[in-house]
Amino acid sequence: MHVKTYTGASTSAVLANIKADLGPDAVILETREAVKNGKAEIVITAAVDREGPVPGNGRAFSGPAFPPGNGSGHTGMGWKSWQEEWSSIKTHLLSMMKPELQFSRLSPRQRVAMEFLEQEGVDATSLLAVFEALLPDPQASILAPLEALVPVKGWSAKNWPQRVHLVAGPYGSGKTTALVRLALLLRKEMPGRKIWVVNADSLRGGGRLLLKNYSQLCGLEYREVSNAVEFAAVLASARHNGVNTILVDLPGLPRRKSMPEMLDHFGMTDPDNALHLVVTPHYGETAMRSLAARYVPDAVRQNAGLIWTKLDEADKFGTLVNVGAASRLPVSALSCGPELNDTLVPAENAALWRLLFKQEMPCKAHPDDAGF
Question: InterPro entries from the entry (predicted)?
């Protein structure tokens, strides 16, 4: 596997460069923001699984993207041979499943929908599940099996009644702005609700100032914590002040740390806490599954969900089906566009399928409305 890092002024420009350089099979491993010579830039690490020299002039190295191990980030012995063996097994499994997907056995309307899902990048496992659900009834809609595959639990006080909501995700996924948007949406739903924003990612200067400034602009109460003692003090103060909802911006998970370790450090291990994993469609399937496993282990899955961001920067949305089906985490919100207002909506089945089949953005404010 060849891995390269690309930089540019915008996500769409960098993605276009990656596609031209590495081809359509490239997967996104990491997306983050950086500052160079006083200007913001997007940094994306991508990989392509092929042999031979790496095209282009990007920085590259050969090696696995997500080595197996004990969850601490240490590479297991014999990883390269394990990866090659698994790749071979996966290829054979998918080739065995392919003959079962005889779209000609479906009605014309169902066949067209299945072919579209395949073009969108929906994987063979999900396609087979939908295919088997459709086969007995030529009149059956494709939406019913899709809804069974991809759980949805839209962001609202009713659906997510927990007091503490932990917002997590890799750097560059848009988790900080997603947190502010969650707060604004909740305040719009319930104007009298007391909401506090807590920054547990306060050691990063840029991220700290961003969340603090956003909170002040939006009239949200802002706090910072760096350990369990400080968070306990925030909880006590929140109870005293009658705060209804606490939204916590967690740091990106270090490679050698696990989510339970991070939550223990901050004293956020209460099983009643909710956890929202913020992700973008830009990540490849391997990276996405690894993120879901690392950020949402079994210990916190009960009250966990997915927030999809930067949807306006993607050109395919099959990943939403694949990740939802594989992780079984409900989608809580959909976000697109750079602004804070009207750029995040509670997830709904109808909005999800309009996005998948029509590429219709779920938000009111997105670049398509910009007039250029």
Answer: P-loop_NTPase (IPR027417), SRP54_GTPase_dom (IPR000897)
